[in-house]
Amino acid sequence: MITIRNEKHLRNGLVLLRLFIGWHFLYEGIIKLYNPDWTSFGYLASAQGPFRPLFVAITNDSLIGIADWLNVMALIFVGITLVLGIWEKWGALVGMFLLALYYLAHPSFPWVTQLNVEGSYWFVNKNLIELMACFVLYQVPTGQFFGLSGILKKNKEITKTELS
């Protein structure tokens, strides 16, 4: 069995992890939202790996606008849920889904030429690392410690006590 020496430090570390990842998603979503020239076209058109046909198909004129909008809204949703500490399990799930898509569009396999990515890695890249961090946040939702989930839970308990 694993013993945790200081549960408070672990909890605070997980809260900071949630806030930092949430900030990253929120920033990426807002920057894309307010940049009228942004599109995922280049990223998708240069996709590599076994799912290349799927990502290239999304660059079709009838789909790219929808894909861009869904991407931005999902980024903002993940960011808001993780920063505010409410519905963070949903935020972590959506974040894992997005990061898996980003990874599959440009997998960091040694035999694949790396295009449109921040460096060359073997199998593990930043998207996969952040995906695993979101997996940890899914397992240990911290909004009850620092976030709206905790505030709403306390208000609900107070209301139940007052009604009793």
TrEMBL record:
It is found in: Membrane. GO terms for cellular component: membrane. Its main location: membrane. Keywords: Membrane, Transmembrane, Transmembrane helix. InterPro entries: DoxX. It comes from the Bacteria. This is DoxX family protein. It comes from Ulvibacterium marinum. The lineage of its organism: Bacteria, Pseudomonadati, Bacteroidota, Flavobacteriia, Flavobacteriales.
